[in-house]
Amino acid sequence: MIQGQLTALGVQSTPIPTLPPELPAQVVSAAPVVSAAPAVTAAPEAAGPALLALPAPLVIGLAVLLAVLALGVLILVIRNMKLSKQLRPAQEPEAPSEITQIRIGKLHAQGAREYQQDCFAVSDPALIRSHGLLAIVADGMGGLEDGDKVSMATVETILSAFPYLPQEEPERQLLDLTRQAVQKVNHMLGDEGLRKSGSTLAMGLLKDQSFSFLSMGDSHIYLLRDGALLLLNREHIFRNELMLRAVNGELSLQEVYADERGSGLVSFVGMGTVKYIDMPSEPVAVRPGDKLILMSDGIYNALEAEELCAALEGDAEEAAGRLNELIAAKGYVNQDNYTGIILQCLGEAPASEQKEA
Question: What fold, for 99-356?
Answer without folding.
Answer: Phosphatase 2c; domain 1 (3.60.40)
